[in-house]
Amino acid sequence: MVNENGGQAAQIERELVEQDLDWQLAHAESAATALDMAAELAPDVLICSERIGSTQGLALLAQLRERHPETVRVLLMDAGREHDAMQALEIAHRVLPEPPEALALIEAVESVMELRALLDDPGLKQAISRVGALPAAPRQYLALTRLLRDPDTSAARIAEVVAQDPTVAARVLRLSNSAYYSGGREISDLRTAVTRLGQNALRQMVLASEVFAAGADADAMRDRSLRISQLAGQLLAGPSAELAATAGLLSEVGLLLPTPGVQGGDSTVAPYSVTGAYLLGLWGLPAPIVEAVAFHLQPARIRGSFWVTGAVHVAAALVNDREVDSNYLRTVGQLDRLPRWRAMADALIEAA
Description:
The termini are far apart. Strands 1-4-5 form a 3-stranded parallel beta sheet, sandwiched between helices. Helix 4 (about 80-90) links the parallel strand 4 (about 70-75) and strand 5 (about 95). It has 19 helices and 5 strands. Mean pLDDT is about 85; it is low at about 265. It is mainly alpha-helical. It folds into 2 domains: about 5-120, Response regulator (Rossmann fold, 3-Layer(aba) Sandwich); about 140-350, Hypothetical protein af1432 (Orthogonal Bundle). Helices cover about 60% and strands about 5% of the residues.
């Protein structure tokens, strides 16, 4: 753990004892000390404050990622920095508030470690290798995401990027004129469509168009994924809603791949949720999105409160008319919201 407050490390150590976890915690108060200790210890987890003296914590995590790419990285950030937190997830596996709540920190680390163990399974890797060519990363979506980070980016510039793919542009126009967005006024120019949809909806539309671009069921998968995305994004607030919307959109991406057998040919089959998560990991998407795709069929495997995985589980189940895990919702204190969520799902289907 890298920060200037040794008391926080002591608090976490006490929680580790209470949870009966045999983890060893080392504390560094400077960036230089952290780099030296990491070289010596090769840690499984790195927890870093947003600022350590004159060093930015995210920059330090980026350095440590280069030297120890397999290490789980957690950034501690002051509240009220939602936009920065979203960007930080490109380097950190988790962004948690500072000062950290010890139990929440432990649960976050355990979740990331479980995801890593799942996707590092040798049988899964061997099975994926037999699939052949995997779908390419969505380049237009990634370019648009980078562009939208600049608050001075104009709608005209965004429209230029969208217009590079005529198929995507046509779908953006169609969505902006749908009953869900149009309000009865038809538009035909791409710049107005970009403004009407808003940044988040636009990114989801571009992502869906790139990922579900071909195949006999591409249109049906795209429309279904967009409904899952919209609903999942409505179940959470703030930047978490954006994560849930993206994870919901990609929750069925594994269906694009042939179903690979794992450890025993046809006797054991990798679920599409796991193969989809593996693909997203190769694309370099943020860990909470990969985790939600991997575990949305079994959300109880994730410790902690109702977050992205839970939202995607509920949204995907309702859109696909599957049973929602009521025991899981009861455990995380959300079961009483299920009737309202069902009504929201019905409304989205009717508006489509």
